[in-house]
Amino acid sequence: QKEVEQNSGPLSVPEGAIASLNCTYSDRVSQSFFWYRQYSGKSPELIMSIYSNGDKEDGRFTAQLNKASQYVSLLIRDSQPSDSATYLCAVKSSASKIIFGSGTRLSIRP
Amino acid sequence: GAGVSQSPRYKVTKRGQDVALRCDPISGHVSLYWYRQALGQGPEFLTYFNYEAQQDKSGLPNDRFSAERPEGSISTLTIQRTEQRDSAMYRCASSLETGINEKLFFGSGTQLSVL
After folding, report:
1. Which of A12, A89, B103, B106 is the 20 to 30 Å CA partner of B2?
2. SS3 content of chain A, % helix, strand, coil (to 5)
């Protein structure tokens, strides 16, 4: 079992709709959870972090965490073509290193 | 500096040669991570440091790979006797804080090609 799992996609969403990206993790005592965005040919950049169960909103982005289910999600409202990228879920494990998933490719179609 | 700086940007080497990849983190950043990223995949953990101390090297694939950060700033990832399977993008990232609030800033990466 991979430590951080994501559906590789591609996920295709019409412009203006909500994109929903999901991630599961295996280390039950993980403490910190992150979403990074990576445009093609570029480096990952942090867009959201979440530490407690529930929702955290930042502009059009909402991160959701459910530690009991070991599940993290990212919702992107009013999706724009500029949101087309690979979204990486990252988890800081009990061993204190940050582990990334394989990423989900998101495509916003006009 | 303004961001995480990695050099060289591209490295082409022949199989069997040693290579050294350099990472200059954001000034004052405490933790420094090395990842390897294959095309279409997420970053694969290699090793990380807090200050000059190597905290975890469990991701280094074998003993040909080593890393150091002797003064708690610049880090070097060394690959000895390179093999074609070592070809990948090598990414460095640093964070101001350790602990749960460890937010990584990535450099542009070094694209390594082993011929």
Report:
1. A89
2. 5, 55, 45
- CA B15-B89-B115 angle, 5° bins: 20
**Contacts (Cβ under 8 Å, ≥6 apart) of B91:** A43, A44, B6, B34, B35, B36, B37, B43, B106, B107, B109
Q: Count how many pairs of residues, chain A against chain B, have C-beta atoms within 8 Å.
A: 59
Mean local confidence (pLDDT), A88-97: 88
Say what percent of chain A tops pLDDT 70: 97
The reply to whether A57 touches chain B by the CB within 8 Å rule is no
Q: In what order do the strands lie in the sheet with A4-5?
A: A4-5, A19-25, A71-76, A61-66, A54-58
pLDDT of A91: 96
What pLDDT, on the 0 to 100 scale, is given for residue B1?
53
From A20, A51, A19, select the one nearest A34 (Cα to Cα). Answer: A51
Separation between Cα atoms, residue A26 and residue A49, nearest integer Å: 18
Rounded CA separation B13/B110 (Å)? 13
**Secondary structure of residue A82 in the 3-state scheme:** helix
Please, which residues 3-32 of chain B have a Cβ atom closer than 8 Å to chain A?
A: none
* Residues whose CB is less than 8 angstroms from the CB of residue A41 and which lie 6 or more positions away in sequence, other chains included: none
Q: Which of A23, A54, A51, A21 is nearest to B102 (CA)?
A: A51
